[in-house]
Structure formats: structure tokens, C-alpha cells
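yo, F-box domain-containing protein is done. seq:
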Amino acid sequence: MQRSEMEKEFLPLDVMINILKRVPVKSLIRFKCVSKEWLKILERSPFFTKQQLEHSAANNALLLLQRIHRQPRPEPFSTCIIGPHHDLIHESHLSHIVSPTAKILASCNGLLCLRHNTALSILNPATRQIRQVPIANLLAFNYVGFGFSPLADDYKIVRISMCVFAPDDQVVVLDNVRVDRVEVYSLASGSWREIDAAKLQPLCIVSSSVAITGTIFWLATMTSASNTDSEFVVSFDVGRDLFTLVNGPPIPHSPSHPYNNNVLAVCNDKLAMFRHYIVGAFESCSFDLWVLEDFHGHYDNNTCDVSAESWVKMYSVGPFSRIVYPLSLWGDEIVCREELSGQENDLRTVETVLALFNPLSKQLKKLPSHKDEFFYVPFTYSESLVPVSNLLHH
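structure:
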């Protein structure tokens, strides 16, 4: 009996896929040379790519950390990956394909959106594939989001360009900065197009983005021209290229909460927000975690969808006797940066520790990847075979 006939009799296709989707991507890449049938499954099957990604996201959600040296000197682009048991499972130096100045902006389905100097690129660190994105120069006041739409079966990059509306001799403050234009890049078509940004033009984007299947979110505030200090969440429907505004959770205005800083996150595939409070001269801090239930974006008007949104407070954490910043959520734990010493608001001089806070046990546990000469930027991550080219027709 020939080898190909034996393979077909011995291992049905559905069984083979069920086994292979559980194998690490590094091994899957090596398995491409086993047979033509395996090559076809691993490299040319959108169905298997989707199956592998879904299994990886559900069963092996990882924490990817970009390491940035505290001193302003050239260092190779470096990441490390923390496994489900808080163990350091992989360190990667991709200096041969990624610029040393690259910064990770977003993570989605095993792909990273990178910014390096004035350029953007998409990287799959598991397969080591990278795709350069054609783009005009990025300005200081540009905000970028990256997400996937199952509806369109497409990955998109959203670039929100900010503009300073003030005399040349006036000091630039947030009140003078607001949205000027929005461009969307489709990885399927390989092209940029400008979309209507009228709804955003009274706003100033003030945060990096987070993405939940089909939607990208940013934090924004109204500029002085609107005569209000309201805060909103901007949501972008990746499939329909449409924006809507969402009211944030209630803001407590009291002497016990004199300062607050907000951070967007993802909690069980729902939008979440940390409200972070610092007391006195950075003497202690606490934070709340809010989760948005039953989100329904209304795209037919320029007003906020108020009635359909419901923010629920999940946790109130602290107070801490030191400054602890919540950064993101990873599973049931909160990724935090604990500041030990240094100059306020200068990450390159502050001695920091990256840690996980468990809301149930109230324990703050230092991550094993920590090295004093670096500070770390965390991203949730799942290994995948998603290609960076021909994302629609592969």
C-alpha cells in the first residue's frame, strides 16, 4: 500500500485537524514538510487557520511584553511571552526583521501592529512574517487602532490624525487639539481610504486603542470649543467603517478621589475601563474596574447611545500604600505596574515592577520576566498562523 493511501486510512482529516490545532505554531511550521497534504492544511487552509486560532485563544491565552530599555540608546526589538502558569516561556529578538525603534501599538489574533519612526507594519511573531504598510509620515498627534471584522473577513488599521487649532505662539494643550481626519487601511485590499470624521471633530483622543472582535475603542474628551468636559469612549465598527460615541462610567467628584486616570481594557470579550485614583502627592492609590454590558452602537446620529449602554462595577481595588497602575486584564488577573522610586511621570527614571494582581486573593505577584534595566508594555496575545499577506484571498 502506498504511503499516501496509508495516511488517508490511518488519520481522517477532521481528526488530523483536531490534533494539529493543539500543536504550537513553531512545530506546525516544521510539520509543513511532512507531506503535501499537511502543507495544504497548514499553509493554504483558512478553515484550519481559524480552528487553530480559536483553540489558541480559548486555551492558551498568553501575555506578550515588549521590553524597552530605560536608557535612550539603540536596543534590538525584544519581546518575552508569559504562559498561563506565569512562567516565562519565550524570549524573542527579531532585530533582523524589525526596526530597533519599533513600538507595538496593538495585538489582534496573533498579529501585532507596529510603529517604527514614521512607518507602520504588521508582524506575526510566531511565524516571523512581517508586512510593511504604505503610509505617509506619522505625526506626533496620530492615534492608531488595529482590529479584525468577521463580517468583512478583513483586518484594518485605523489612523486618527489630530490637529492643533491654536496660534503658533500659544502653548499646545489638550483643549487646542482635536481630530482632523481619519484614514482606514484594509489589509485585504492593500490600500488606504479616508472616511467621514465629522462625528469625531469636537474630540481629542487621549488613549491607545483596545479591540474586541469587530470593534476598536479609544478614550476621548471634548475640546474647549464644545464648552464641556465630558469624557467618551469612541468605538469604530471595523466591518462598516463607522464611528459611534459611548458614555463612560460615572465619575466620582469628591475630595477622596482628587485625581483620576482612565485605562481601557478587555474583560471576557467585553469593553472594560479602569478608573485610577491617586491621593495626595502620590501617597497612595486605588482603582475601580468597570465593564460595559450590552453594548449596542447606534450609527445613525451624532449623539451618544446612552440608554443601551450599561456600565457595571466589577471590582474596587486598594488603597495601596504605593503607586500601582492598572494596565490591562489577563484572564482573571490585572496586569499592573508598581512604581518604587524615581521621578514622577518619567518611565525611564522610575524604578518599576510589572506584576499581576489577583482580585480574589488580593495578592500582587511580580512577573518572572522583570529586569531592572527595562520597562515593559503588556499585550494579550495568542499564537496563530494568520498570514500577514493575502488575508482575504488565501
